[in-house]
Amino acid sequence: MQLVTLTGEPWADYGLIDCGNGRKLERYGDYRFIRPEPQAMWAPASDAWDAHGEFVPGSDEDGGGRWQYHQPTPREGWPLNWREVTFTAQNTPFRHLGFFPDMAPVWDWMRGKLDGAHAPECMNLFGYTGVGTLALSAAGANMVHVDASKKSVEAARNNAILSGMADRPIRWLVEDAGKFVAREVRRGRRYDGILLDPPKYGRGPGKEIWQLETGLPQLIADCRQLLDENSRFCFLTVYAVRMSALAIGELMRQHFADLGGTIECGELTVREEARGLLLPTAIFARWSR
Ligand SMILES: C[S@@+](CC[C@H](N)C(=O)[O-])C[C@H]1O[C@@H](n2cnc3c(N)ncnc32)[C@H](O)[C@@H]1O
After folding, report:
1. What's the mean per-residue pLDDT of the chain?
2. C-alpha 127 to ligand 1 mean position (Å)
3. Is 19 contained in some domain?
């Protein structure tokens, strides 16, 4: 299987300004932040970074740590735009800003795959604050947005309001992704496109345990059952797990082989503005027609 590099280019409201020495400097609208980035082992372009704040990690590699602010930053968040979508960026205790800018090329790719489709049915699993859901909705899709966290779904609905998309056909569901998909299979439902962005570890609303390595095979098998010969795409991203893109590519190939179309896998990257170098952020596998 051929490895593909999918690259996020800077846009008006987001850019990876510089990275190196285990950290990265990014701009989110008018605000700039420094965050840990263990893969940036090279030297940065500049050693004089001017930021509004920095996330200083704790001793625990997977969590802990806190934001330190050097200049005033709106604690309640501030609006950002990506194409037709408006959403709130906010410093979260999880070291990110409440959305994942490296997903932008994924949103564009999925929208391209929907070209010419009439009111396609799409699903966003582990949808978090909903930017992917709104990106697809703005392209004309009827959406099902699934996340285990009531708070995340509320934030996603608020982003729909901010985007002027509160009346779009979007079902906002606080559900366990695995259970919901299995139920959709039993109901004989079909979709034109599915986006899955599962965390390494999570909990459903009923305290169902989600563990990527053990849960993914069944979830991919079930997603396949929801797609048919007229479907357009299935896109899986995996972050922060010791796993090769080929592993998720082969998993997808096994389950999707009978569906025709193309399977690809590779790395999701963000282009640094200072020198154009590519910072890897996730691995992905995708099926499309
Ligand atoms: C932040 S997003 C995914 C981004 C990225 N993949 C990561 O690991 O950080 C993870 C989302 O999955 C949701 N989630 C976790 N376990 C879940 C489950 N069992 N069913 C549905 N959503 C779940 C969380 O509420 C969260 O919004």
Report:
1. 97
2. 7
3. yes
* Domain assignment of residue 168, yes or no: yes
d(CA 288, CA 28): 31
Nearest CA to ligand 1 atom 6: 199
Q: Are residues 55 and 151 in the same domain?
A: no
| Cβ pair 35, 55 in contact under 8 A | yes
Tell me the CA–centroid distance for residue 211 and ligand 1, in Å: 11
Pick from 35, 94, 125, 126 the residue to mutate for probing ligand 1's pocket: most ligand atoms within 8 Å of its CB: 126
Rounded to the nearest angstrom, the distance between the alpha carbon of 146 and the centre of ligand 1 is 9
Q: What average pLDDT does this structure show over 11-32?
A: 98
Single pTM value for the model: 0.96
Domain count, the chain: 2
Domain that holds residue 142: 81-89+95-288
The residues lining ligand 1, judged by C-beta closer than 6 Å to any ligand atom, are 100, 126, 128, 146-149, 152, 176-177, 197-200, 202-204, 208, 210, 239-240
Strand partners, 201: 211
Between CA 54 and CA 186 the distance in angstroms is: 47
Domain assignment present for 1: no
Examine the domain organization and report whether 101 and 70 are in the same domain: no
Instruction: Give the residue from 254, 268, 146 showing the smallest Cα distance to 198.
Output: 146
Q: Specify the pLDDT at position 140.
A: 98
* Structure token pair of residue 55: 């996330």
Indicate if 68 and 116 belong to the same structural domain.
Answer: no
How do residues 137-183 score in pLDDT, each as one tens digit?
999 999 999 999 999 999 999 999 999 999 999 999 999 999 999 99
CATH of the domain at 258: 3.40.50.150
